[in-house]
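ok so for the tutorial part 2 we go from a plain amino acid sequence to predicted structure tokens. step 1 is just haveing the sequence, like this:
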Amino acid sequence: MTTTPSKALETFSNPHPERDYTVRIRIPEFTCLCPKTGQPDFATLTLEYVPDLLCIELKSLKLYIWSFRDEGAFHEDVTNRILNDLVATCAPRFMRLRAEFNVRGGIYTDVVVEHRQPDWKPPRRVELE
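step 2 — the prediction. this is what the tokens look like for a chain of 129 residues:
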């Protein structure tokens, strides 16, 4: 295999730091292991963020997400850890991560975590008729 999982996240300079805009990334193949049973857990991750000076580089994000495949983690913990790592890497104005885990024992888990820079205010939404 030419690429291997990695915890190293990379960034690039935001090409439009003067503007608030949203980057949405959908990751439908997230896997980790149940820390109680060792069975695989599957989830779709949806990442939304308003970059400040840096953007997340997608290949490094893919390899970072792959790095959880053999790790035992509770859904709540792994979602918060991923958000913390991403915020530490790119210091966005705003970031939201949603982890929608597949059914296990008749239960779906949906974990949503957010980060917001203290001084950042979202622009008013424009409604067009």
